[in-house]
Amino acid sequence: MRDVAARAQVSAMTVSRVLKEDERVSTATRAKVLAAVEELGYRRNEVARNLRLGRPSGMIGLVVTNLANPFYSRLALGAEQVAEEHGLRLVLGNTAEQVQRERELVEDLVSRRVDGMIVVPAGASQRHLAPDVLGPTPVVLAGRPPAGIEADTVLVDDFGGAHAATARLIADGHRSIGFVGNPPALFTGAERFRGYWAAHEEAGLTPREEWISRGAYDIPGAEAAAHRLLDRTDAPTALFCTNNRITLGAYRAVRGLRSGTALAAFDDFEMADLLDVPVTVVAYDADEVGRRAARLLLDRIDEKSAAPRQPPRRTVVPTHIVHHTGA
Amino acid sequence: MRDVAARAQVSAMTVSRVLKEDERVSTATRAKVLAAVEELGYRRNEVARNLRLGRPSGMIGLVVTNLANPFYSRLALGAEQVAEEHGLRLVLGNTAEQVQRERELVEDLVSRRVDGMIVVPAGASQRHLAPDVLGPTPVVLAGRPPAGIEADTVLVDDFGGAHAATARLIADGHRSIGFVGNPPALFTGAERFRGYWAAHEEAGLTPREEWISRGAYDIPGAEAAAHRLLDRTDAPTALFCTNNRITLGAYRAVRGLRSGTALAAFDDFEMADLLDVPVTVVAYDADEVGRRAARLLLDRIDEKSAAPRQPPRRTVVPTHIVHHTGA
DNA sequence: CTGTTAGCGCGTTCAC
DNA sequence: GTGAACGCGCTAACAG
């Protein structure tokens, strides 16, 4: 900036004014300054600017558990979109489901003075995200609810979606519906199990324990789990799968049998309509999760300092059922 | 920091030293300072720190065209991984293939003093990324080669992959192989077409113009394009598809016909082995593209100022063929 | 071992 | 309209 000032034969202050589009600069001076800026390829240092203005960095942090999962990359896309509209940049961190990584990332983001952050929490507790330990940086949780703290949250309607999909299977005449899910420790898994169960109860049914498998966390695991359910003499006639990975595994098992076992599945996927068994998927807008999280965060950022801290807000992104009859 | 200093009854400098883990501080003072830090929940401001140290922000920019595409989210994941290992954070921007957005993002990232950036270029020229306009911020291109500038680049072996997949079809006895691709303006599309063509030439074949479609850019478009090829009386017995979206569309067309038309396709996808036609996919490690890009960038960052600017480097991520016989 | 001075790049405040 | 002084939060260089 000094160089520009020297070249334009003005003070640094005048350069600052021109770049800030301050009116009180003569047209002639402005032209001189802009010429110098051009010639030197000068760019104002936004970091120093924010420091001087006492502002945070103009960035929002996004901490996800697994960017390779389309759900989270869509979430990131949605958040980026809203952030962009407000002139904010997104700083990305991937925790690989490790709480320790999450802790470090969050610390680092605060030290970098992000305006706020969106976190998909990896662990059982989010105490380290509490205002009294984190300071004034606003936090919004996405995908999983807060535990041990209060915080704005965006969730997917896990219960409702699982309920509707299961109900659909029941309506289609299925009376023995297996459950292939990830470990119940995961919130989404637990909620989706609740939905599966509730749909049964409402129909006066009780799922048999032998039809329930809750240990799989990848495709081969899910395939094996589905096989164990389907190999029984009283095998279920349909399977409810709690996420896209589980579904792919279960489909492999179902397909091998050619038994026509129906599937219901959380998470839509592109080839769902091309499978050779009936598939009912629970679809939802993952981008919207990111957009809503970003909006909640922006609200908090604007609200800052004002008012006696609003109570935490929670929003649930709806799901809808898509039914494919199977080819 | 002043508050901490006051509370610990030392100077700010001492606090700075303790936090920097400078040895020359008495154990007693250190303890006092750390206690004060703890009590106040103080966190050093990394932004001010970097400013004072004359360093960039400790972040690297990543500008992609479409984060919803798994290729780019995997790329981001790979880059994040390497950045993380070096204590750098990733700042993300999505251009939605708009050059204007890319320009703005790049400008902004430079103003934020990123250490460097990885860009998946959206437009036909990357003049705006040239060192003389961007300044000293290092740039690495990913997925598409530089045009109008010199720059380090990471590419996928588009030509080789397309060549190998097509050759495989030919080896399997196919003599009429259709081409369903995106517009040739895209580098990847052009390269993959070259591979398709070269494999034919080497086998003494020449693809018929009527078997070549190069306009599709989404799934329905690809399905329609494939239908047009397959509805001919001299329909090809196999189709080469230039990317995952195209493949999904083409499969829909192929499947409807039950003609047993074989597919070869760039980009692997999870259900490739479950389709009811033979599918040959060109698979590659998208994470690796991001990792290599990050490494190239880190090299440039380290090299900075030293030496008389090394020549641009280029690396090509290999592909491999996976063949599925069709169920 | 610890404190003081000075300044990273910028903008507010108050002069001229 | 324009400039000088001062400070955002931090630390290198030099004192002591």
From TrEMBL, chains A, B:
Keywords: DNA-binding, Transcription, Transcription regulation. PROSITE patterns: HTH_LACI_1, HTH_LACI_2. One of its GO terms (molecular function) is DNA binding. Residues 1-53 form the HTH lacI-type domain. The keyword Transcription applies. Transmembrane segments: none annotated. SUPFAM superfamilies: lambda repressor-like DNA-binding domains, Periplasmic binding protein-like I. The keyword DNA-binding applies. Residues 305-327 are annotated as: Disordered. Pfam families: LacI, Peripla_BP_1. CDD domains: HTH_LacI, PBP1_LacI_sugar_binding-like. SMART domains: HTH_LACI. This is LacI family DNA-binding transcriptional regulator.
